[in-house]
Amino acid sequence: MNINYEINRLISFGLQHHMIEEADLLYAANKIIDILRVPSFEYEAVELPSMENPSEILGAILDYAASNGVLECDSVDHRDLLDTKIMDCLMPRPSEVIKTFNNLHAQNPEEATKYYYDLSKASNYIRVSRVAKNLSWKTTTLYGDLDITINLSKPEKDPKAIAMAKSLPSSNYPKCLLCKENVGYAGTLNHPARQNHRIIPLELTNEEWFLQYSPYVYYNEHCIVLKGAHEPMKISRLTFERLLQFVDQFKHYFLGSNADLPIVGGSILTHDHFQGGAYQFAMETAPILKTLNVLNFKDVEVGFVNWPLSVLRLKGENRERLVELGEIILNTWRQYSDEALGIFAHTDGVPHNTITPIARFKNGKYELDLVLRNNRTSDEHPDGIYHPHAHLHHLKKENIGLIEVMGLAVLPGRLKDELEVVKQAPVARDANMLEEAGLEKHLPWLNEMLTRYESVAADEAMSVIETEVGKKFVEILECCGVYKLTDEGLEGIQRFINTINRSL
What we know:
ten-stranded antiparallel β-sheet; 17% strand
């Protein structure tokens, strides 16, 4: 391998993506050769094809590092730490990124986010090559076209790296993966390197917040908006204000929050944050099933959305009015019970009711979707009454968070191999195939398919399986709906609105 050539390729990539300028060329090269312990360097102009990210070049450089003793261990974790350190040599300083972003935002917010998103991919902070490994498809349902993703972007931990990580001293710096202190952090075997990470400061509700992208983008421009202070998730009036203030600044993005209670909340409840981006989920286009009238809020359109989860959609030109009504709905819902429908706000002093909110700006109006959530458990449903029920755990047992709520299933990576086996069973019409593979958990699902399909051709099998996974995702979402889309459910949501009206 010609390491001089590979370094020149990386330098050319940095120039191509405006990460560095000609004047930075030798400076960046010298930093890279220092990391790689290369004794000398000669610059050569390299013509590169258009490349979105540098993963191919970095792969070659990492192979060199592994064969020349630069890597302590040739594991995924060690390679990630090293390639992030290398990419930092090409990165503009945080102040430069912020300045460029703000200048572009003043002219056109869409240009600002495009610049920042492209930089996040070019820097390899978003590992595009890994994200591309995810299996994704759409399934047409009664609720629109739902997105299905089998998450394969997070690599398996190397056993050697796991063993080495155990000997590392514990640290609470940064406190979590979302803290602003991650910017430029070298990382450890227990914490990802973030030297190529840059964040954009924002002001929301007169507080310090930051914009960044998710390293594991599940949809276009999947962004995270995080609080400057390490504080736990809490849904409140301030949440609605922040969401609507953000979409006022970035009208081409939606922004939403996970709920703030276990089971119905997201994976990180310890740090207040939101998720958004430039993507239209099926929930956004779902029609209003029932128009609702709230006293003293004639200027706000309120509707119950035709969606498997229970969504109240607020629309209006005045965002403060949406915040005001959102607060009333939230406070009422936190204390609301409907025994006839099995809805209890508290049991033994433990709160169960909260909201998953999503904000948008569309057609000159602000939209605030308030998804009513309840995390109560029972003997029949120990993982949660409004949670994927046990017969669906063969596909997904994890929390239904913001992304799933909007209509994108993020399914575990194990399903890639499991579905390859499952797809053969309806073709052969042989349940033993699953038993032999140790996949008995999928047998009830297979039996459903065998009754539904008289025959399945081999070349159609995966398409059938994808469709059936989509149908199961619908069931998963329907499990999570507090008010079902039935006459009984519609009467229940009207009772809730009546309770609000009586309080006004």
